[in-house]
Structures are given as structure tokens and as C-alpha cells.
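Exercise 7.
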Amino acid sequence: MMQRLWFRRLAFCGAVLAFGVVVLGAWVRLTDAGLGCPDWPGCYGHLYPQPGGEIGKAWHEMVHRYVAGSLIVIIAALLSWAVLRRKDPDQPLRPVAVLFGVVCFQGMLGALTVTLKLKPLIVTGHLLGGLTTLALLTWLAIKPETHAVQPPPRGLRTFALLASAVLCIQLFLGGWTSTNYAAVACPDFPTCQRSWWPAMDFRDAYVLQQGPGVDYEGGVLANPARMAIHFTHRLGALVAGSVLLALGMLTLGRARSRRLAGAGMGVAAAVLLQISIGIATVHFGIPLPLATLHNAGAALLVVSMVWLLRALWPAAAVVTVPAPAAASQGMPRPGVPEPPGGVIPLRRAFRPD
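Solution. The predicted structure, written as C-alpha cells, is:
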């Protein structure tokens, strides 16, 4: 029991670090420091930035890399722990293996982000990979239900999975908006360029391949395409926000445990906070702190959804029932060992609705 506790604590440290990596990555992107160190993993051939040039941007990029490197060490330690204790039925192994695979893929995307000069598809994938890493670490850090609880209301799990898919699409739209520098394309709210439906170019807005040798720093799309990206992100926020808020309120109203009710409240609060930050970011002219906070809000949404899913899918619970009267009277049946304490332990795992 104590060893599983320390495993969850290590996973929690990793989740906090992953949250920091996501926010630092946004800070690097928003300060145009993604190419502050044009080589990888070092910076102009050194382990740390050297004096000269745009050393401020170089330090932004390298601090992000240092924190990401520390996160890799923690995840490697979690994998080693899980492998060494793989015979323990309560020790998760597959999620940790998937987590290690994701973070290795993240390292490759980090290198390609620099070598392909901030290609939007790579940078967006890097952002989604960071959020996936955060989600997996959060899942491992949360203690599952270990006592007998009532199964969640019918249909709530299906709705939660649907809401998770909607959130993933919205995260992609947000990442695509950021990596194409389309946040400033609609400087007013709720209209865009003082129009409810401005002249937009959807054909070029989601072209994934722009050709080799293109430097994407600052963006390469024309303003009509950027407006289409930004406007789509707003529409997605309206849909995703409505779905997630409905999920949170429905969970809060139908929850049969304090933990599930708290998870529903957390999702609803995270949605309202993120919408408020998004509106404020546009209203105040997309200041750097608010734009960075908007990315932190997205990470908080991911954490709150994982918290809810963890509450909806508890671990197998141990249930005890009275032993047969014969056993309790000291007359065990032939070939059947007497249960300790006069109870028979049973394992029960909830099945999806």
C-alpha cells in the first residue's frame, strides 16, 4: 500500500511538471522564441545559451527543454518502478508504458519543431502530445476508488467519452490557431473584424503541408485564412463549452458520491474559467500573460476531465459477504479452506453501461 502511495506521489510530481512544460511551451511560442536555439538538443552547440545574439529567447527555449528533460527522467523512473513491480495486481503497467512511448514521441516532435522551423502541424502535435502526457500522469496520480461504491448513473460514461472527444477537437483547433499566429486575426469580440461572418478563406486555413524549407515563425497564411482559423476556434469553443458545461452540471446533479460530484463541479468551473480567460484575452488585445494563461486553462480542462473520468471508472472494489454458517461454526466444507474473519472476499469491477 505504501509503495503504491509513493508511486502516485511520483506521478503527481510528474503531472505538475508536465503542466509546467505545457505552460512554458506556450510562453516560448508566444514570445517567438521557438527558434531561439536553432539546433537540438543543445543551443548553438552548447548545453546552455552563450552571450550574444537574442540570448533572452535562447534562455526561454532552453529552460523549456530543461524542464521537459526533468519530466522524461520522472517518467523513466515510473516505468522502471512499474516493471519491477509488475507482479503486483494493483500496479499499473500498460498506462505507464504508453506514457513512456508518448514522451519519447514528444522528444522527436520537439526536435522536428526546431529542424522544420515551427511547422504548424508539428508544433500542434507537440502541444497535443504534451497535454496527453499531462492526462496520463494525472490518471496515474489520482487514487482510484478502492471501496464498494454504487455504479455511476446510466449513460453518464457515454456522455463523458463524447465530451472528451469534443474537447480533443477543440484542443486541436486552439493549437492550430496558436501555431498559425491567428489569435490576432479577430481583435474584437463577439464579432470578427466588426462582422458576424467576415470574408474568410477556409480552403487555405487547414492546409497541413506548405512545402519544404518554409520558415513558419510569425505565420505564413494570409489574413483571410487566419480569420477562418480563429473563427472556427470560436465556434468550437461555443460547442465544446456547452457540451462540457452540460456534462459538469449533469454529473453534479446525478452524482451518487462526493468524489463524482466534486469532479463534475471541477469540469464546470474549468470551462467557465477558460471561457472567461479567452474573452478577456481578445478584449485586452491579447497580452502575453493572458495568452499564456489561456494555454494553462486548456491544461486545467484536461486535468479536470481526467479527474471526472477517473471517478466514473473506479478500480475493482473488494466486497465482503458473510461466510456460510457452517464455516462460521468451525465446520468447513471438505476441500474448501476456512475464510479469515468469517467473511469471503469478492472482487467486483464495474462494467460500462
